[in-house]
Amino acid sequence: MAKAGRFSNVHAVHLLWHLLFIAPSLCCIPRERAALLSFKAGVVDRQNVLSSWQGQDCCGWKGVACSNRTGHVVKLDLRNTDIDSPVDMSLYGEISPSLLALRHINYLDLSMNSFNSGPIPKFIGSLEKLSYFYYITHRMYSVDLSWLPRLASLRYLDMSFVDLSAVVDWVQVVNMLPSLQVLGLSSCGLYNKTIASIPRSNLTALMNIDLGFNLFGGATKLDWLWNIVSLKYVNLEENLLSGPFPDGLGNLTSLEALYLTDNIFVGLLPGTLKNLCNLRMLDLTFNQVNGDITELMQRLPRCAWNKLEMLVLDSTNLHGNLSKNWLEDMTSLNMLVLHNNTLNGSIPPSIGKLEKLVYLDLSYNSFSGVITDDHFARLTRLEILILSRNPLTITVDPTWVPPFRLELADFGSCKLGPHFPAWLQSQSTISTLDLSDTGISGPVPS
Fold first, then answer.
1. Domains of the chain by range and CATH?
2. Which of 26, 216, 245, 404 could join 382 in a cystine, given CB atoms 3.0 to 4.6 angstroms apart?
3. How many Å apart are CA 75 and CA 59, to the nearest integer?
């Protein structure tokens, strides 16, 4: 009996602990539930996205997450993820200041909805525990970001597509967010701004920055950016930046991905890039490199050759021929694009050793010679193959069976004929095939 009594006492204590500390975490705080319902009352929900917002337990509502320890709402994720759907799943209406009652919230995402056009509500700056703030939308603007530095714990900030064209001090404001790790200000209208230098960068934790599609213009100086040595991802796509490639790029020794697409940089890459041993992705599309491809490759960090996964040099005015000396060392490449240059000579068979290659585009050059099955020997992952507008002859063993399954193939102006290639008949996954002007004159298999 004594043993049974002790068991009952222990069981009772355990049950009491459960009731005191665990059960409350399963129900949300009443004032926070009221705040969410007030927010819901201010929006137009045409597709009943918030249909689950009823009953007492707001912690189970769609997009709402609560702390398991305190029961407070810590996350509100109302991002419209169905923007490509024929059905408009957006929320309309106003962003209610009732959200101020969510004092413990650290994650807020209102992106891709259709809330009333106007300035971003400044009361967002009073949600001082926010670590994540995502508000990607075309319908909002801001002329004053002075509320932003109050979010001292902010680590992830993305306001892409918000009109910030009237904000002149955005760099200084962002520099007051020392915990920031990810910054997205793509397509924010930051063009023609005189960007002041920062005496001392506080962005020592910043790893990812996207400033694409802002059309900064050629005179814009980004010296402040090249001093953020923690950066791993930089997107400056379509900003009309001009002049030589910045020497300061070499300071970014942690850099893994660099997108400079659609700018007007001129000349070879600076020698300082030899320090970027972690580089995995590089896109220089539409910049005027104006040089020999072998010399360009020598400017890339030799220590990163075997780490490069994506190399896009589309329309960069490169000449010369491909050298197996660097090509076969790029063993991690899954995307190689050399489209629309003046490259010539033969394509080395060593390209067939790039086992991870998925996307290969060598079109609109002057490559010549013969392509054999050796060129494809180990390309088991290849899905996109574009060789068009080169005077190439593709000759493979009649019994050859490719190791890959293509989804897109473009051989326009290459010589494949006169018979329809037997190996192509095995490519049942192809959805796009261009065989124009390839010399094929026989019947096409059904």
1. 2-396 (3.80.10.10)
2. 404
3. 10
